[in-house]
Design goal:
261 residues, mainly beta, SH3 type barrels, eight-stranded antiparallel β-sheet, 18 strands, 14% helix, elongated
């Protein structure tokens, strides 16, 4: 059933007309530099080539073609210039400049170990573990899958439950912006209810923040949105989503969880 939901999400996120490379931005501060004699703004990341692309000696369409990228290749960003051009490399070797509008950002959702934390109000503790990735054969990017074990105190009752969580490594709605969807699922929340209750967050890597986006079942989600949380890297983004999601859940969610416990 989760795979079905992911297919639906992916279909909404990937317009048929999209043609691109894939770009992942680093949050580490970089000093101003030159690439092939051209001043570039700090920018780093991994690109997955989604269609054949020319590499130019300078950030100009009439500049000499110095290379060709094939669909499926991966390159690294070295910087960007004002306008739609990205300086790229393979290994340590600078290649040149690729036209920006045929790029979309990608983030690697892999974690080296579990993440543990306590929600802001102190009512829940959680442990998140990276489980692997799905998709990627015919899809332009993968989903990073995680499992979250919760231990919460609600009106003096102890609640223990599990939630799947996944991150779209490609951009939300197939744009070129580094905005990625993080979804926390609750399964079979009410006895016999097969519908998955999903809460969606958006991690904006340009703004370094995670914000609430939407929920699939209105009665289980508060109308008021929690304030966005700061997130400068993957671990911080995942933790931010876990800190925010209990603020979204209504008493109906907690009552249903209490019945299951």
């Amino acid at each position: 059933m989760l795979a079905h939901f992911r297919v639906m999400i992916l279909a909404a996120m990937m317009p048929a007309t999209m043609a691109a490379l894939v770009l992942a931005c680093s949050t580490a501060p970089l000093r101003a530099q030159q690439v092939l004699g051209v001043d570039v703004e700090p920018h780093a990341g991994t690109y997955l080539v989604l269609k054949d692309a020319n590499v130019r000696a300078r950030p100009e369409t009439r500049s000499k073609r110095v290379g060709r990228l094939k669909a499926g290749e991966q390159v690294e960003a070295m910087g960007r210039v004002k306008g739609p051009w990205i300086a790229v490399r393979v290994g340590d070797k600078p290649l040149g400049f690729v036209y920006g509008p045929i790029m979309m950002p990608l983030v690697d959702g892999t974690l080296s170990g579990p993440l543990k934390g306590t929600t802001a109000n102190g009512t829940c503790q959680y442990t998140l573990e990276f489980l692997g990735k799905t998709g990627g054969d015919k899809q332009r990017f993968e989903f990073a899958d995680y499992g979250v074990e919760w231990s919460c105190t609600r009106e003096e009752a102890k609640l223990a439950f599990h939630t799947p969580l996944f991150l779209t490594e490609g951009p939300h709605q197939g744009t070129q912006k580094p905005v990625h969807q993080i979804t926390v699922d609750l399964l079979d929340l009410e006895g016999g209810l097969e519908e998955v209750f999903s809460v969606h967050f958006l991690w904006d890597r340009d703004k370094n923040q995670v914000r609430y986006d939407s929920a699939t079942i209105k009665k289980f989600a508060h109308a008021a949105s929690p304030k966005p949380a700061e997130a400068k890297n993957l671990a911080a983004a995942l933790k931010a989503a876990l800190h925010l999601v209990p603020m979204v859940w209504t008493p109906s969610v907690w009552n249903a969880l209490a019945k299951k416990n």
